[in-house]
Amino acid sequence: MSLVLDFSGKVVAVTGGGRGVGRGVVEAFLDAGAEVEFCGRSEPESLPERAGRTARFCAVDVRDAAQNEAWIADLVQRHGRLDVLVNNVGGSPFGRFEEGSARYFQAVTEINFLSAAVAMRAAFGPLRVTSGSVINITSISARRPSPGTAVYGAAKAALESLTRSLGVEWAPEVRVNAVSSGLVHTESAAGHYGTSTQYEQVARTIPRGRMASPRELGDVCVMLASPLSAHVTGAVLAVDGGGEWPAFLAHTPNADIVRQADRATTNGGATS
């Protein structure tokens, strides 16, 4: 049987869809034919548009439970349905754990875990009607040490745990999955990782020799929300280009294996 990823007539909600990974998710669902709504604290300079359909923006601070819930309720009322919720909002500044305040810990947890939990609770009823799905964007920081962003990693680990639990609790009516993102080339990536040389050095730590594009994360979200993944729930799918090269390999007789990443990056990165 041939399956086409056609989301015509479907309604998709994305938190934090104005830039970076969220923008890639919005564009991927637009290309699949969906009606897409996204939220954020400030409206982007341009709204994603495909084939006469423009993604609709709503100003929402998802850390505020009342705003978060009202956004979901409003879009469901206007469209009469909800098929997919993508919880993408997240992030954290870099800083030593012992220097963080209790308020800082709370804020990082709110944006990276509690906001998604509130949105999922608000969306459950409408998603149940459409046999829809939730996709949570998490991070490799949830499963490996995250020095400098320890609370962020812990919050994303909590979100992955919630994903697995709700994948069972809400089955068979609503599917709940997560996309665990590795390093992504976003608008701020070069500045975040330092100079262009430092950026390239970081990219070489990825087996595929480059960072992901936001659209690559978006395409995986479309796949997980589609009939191709009809029996997938409670899963955490890593989209990280193979993760990270084990550090010890660089100091063994097999170091040439690691150097393949250098060659891949120098030659423009691995092919898709």
Automatic annotation (TrEMBL):
Family matches, as SMART domains: PKS_KR
The entry's keywords: Oxidoreductase
One Pfam family of this chain: adh_short_C2
Domain Ketoreductase per the UniProt entry, residue ranges: 10-175
Protein family membership: Belongs to the short-chain dehydrogenases/reductases (SDR) family.
Protein name in UniProt: SDR family oxidoreductase
Naturally occurring in which organism (per UniProt): Microbacterium panaciterrae
